[in-house]
Write a structure and sequence with these properties.
There is one protein chain. 40% of the residues lie in helices and 18% in strands. α7 links the parallel β6 and β7. It has 12 helices and 14 strands. α1 packs across α9, α6 packs parallel to α7 and α8 crosses α10. It is of the alpha/beta class. It has a single domain, classed as NAD(P)-binding Rossmann-like Domain (Rossmann fold), CATH 3.40.50.720. The strands form 4 sheets. An 8-stranded mixed sheet has the order 3-4-2-1-5-6-7-12, sandwiched between helices. Strands 8-11 form a two-stranded parallel sheet. A two-stranded parallel sheet has the order 9-14.
Length: 342
């Protein structure tokens, strides 16, 4: 298939693009390479895909990978740029769109709300319009575990109410789910939303706990531990996430002969809740170093615990998360040391 992957310079988008190409699909990666975090990390991800920085910096120009040839192409635009986005859809005949582009980060949304409205609402709306107008049969898109907000019942189930988000980021992701439902209902194309749970692994985001803790411990600088360490997260290794996305992208059915609905939502996580202090201990054990912890209060927009019920994804796509925390941490640390020449 020919697949558009938005957010291709991002953590999950990079891994997904690489896997899809290796499986024989054609990929067009899209990203605006914004500076929310290190653009050098984003350009180095693209370099791994064979798109060198000089090429990747060109605006609204489709460039070809030096590593994968015509099987992987890249274009630098934002989803907010409606005319450019529509032109891309007109020139390329996509079978499936996988939208991983978004302004990420719960805490950042408290300080820069406009960025979230522009990218996650306006950009997503533009994408839906392009899909509608260019006869794309399936949109797979990133939602987030943050939509569960003030929900206290664990594990989180798709059937639980998500009407009480506590960050603007979460609110935009909930909005994406509602917008997708509307377009599926009105225009008859499939949408599948994936609520990601705390993804970590090689090439991860530097604003995430795994990255921050590893950096702090190696540099012998204090790490901030929120809610005095009384937090739990469903930490999910990147390979398990990609293994869950691929079958959904490849499941190119139509509702006319398949009983599955046009509109679908799934949790995708490790299906285990790990105490934050145990997660830190796993990093310490791998590095053979101890962290200097600075206990902090709960942060605005944060939740105490996340835990995914993935039974729907298991039922429909035989999803399994097979990577233990110890194994995943070791893989990340190995990459981190190599990347930063430690």
């Amino acid at each position: 298939m020919k697949i558009l992957v938005t957010g291709a310079a991002g953590f999950i988008g990079f891994h997904l693009s690489e896997r899809l190409v290796k499986m024989g699909h054609q990929v067009v990666g899209l990203d605006n390479v914004n500076d929310y975090y290190s653009t050098s990390l984003k350009y180095n991800r693209l370099k791994e895909l064979g798109v060198l920085e000089e090429k990747a910096k060109r605006i609204n120009e489709i460039v070809t990978s030096d590593k994968y040839g015509d099987a992987l192409k890249f274009i630098r635009i934002s989803l907010e740029e409606k005319t450019m986005l529509s032109g891309l859809f007109s020139s390329q005949k996509f079978d499936v769109v996988c939208n991983l582009a978004a302004q990420a980060g719960v805490r950042h949304s408290l300080e820069n709300p406009a960025a979230y409205i522009d990218s996650n609402i306006v950009g997503f709306s533009n994408l839906l319009e392009c899909i509608r107008n260019h006869d794309i049969k399936h949109l797979v898109y990133a939602s987030s575990s943050s939509v569960y907000g003030l929900n206290r019942e664990v594990p989180f189930k798709i059937s639980h109410s998500v009407d009480r988000p506590i960050s603007l980021y979460a609110a935009t992701k909930k909005s994406n789910e509602l917008m997708a439902h509307t377009y599926s209902h009105l225009f008859g194309f499939r949408t599948t939303g994936l609520r990601f749970f705390t993804v970590y692994g090689p090439w991860g985001r530097p604003d995430m706990a795994m990255f921050l803790f590893t950096k702090g411990i190696l540099n012998n600088t204090p790490i901030e531990v929120f809610n005095n360490g009384d937090l739990e997260r469903d930490f999910t290794y990147i390979d398990d996430i990609i293994n869950g996305i691929i079958p959904i992208i490849e499941d190119n059915y139509t509702a006319s002969y398949n009983p599955k609905k046009l509109y679908n939502l799934y949790n995708i996580g490790n299906s285990k809740s790990v105490k934050l202090l145990d997660f830190i201990e796993a990093i310490e054990d791998t590095l053979h170093l101890k962290a200097t912890k600075v206990m902090k209060p709960m942060q605005p927009g944060d939740v105490k615990a996340t835990w995914a019920d993935v039974s729907d994804l298991e039922r429909d796509y035989n999803y399994r998360s097979n990577t233990s925390i110890d194994s995943g941490v070791k893989q990340f640390v190995k990459w981190y040391k190599a990347y930063y020449s430690i």
